[in-house]
Amino acid sequence: MEDNDADVFLVEEALAQHGLQAPVRVLRDGALAQDFIAEIDASPEIPLPDLILLDLNLPKRSGLEVLALIRQSPRCAAIPVVIMTSSDSPLDRQETRRLNADRYFRKPSGYDAFMEMGRVVREVLER
Question: Which CATH superfamily is domain 5-125 in?
Answer without folding.
Answer: Response regulator (3.40.50.2300)
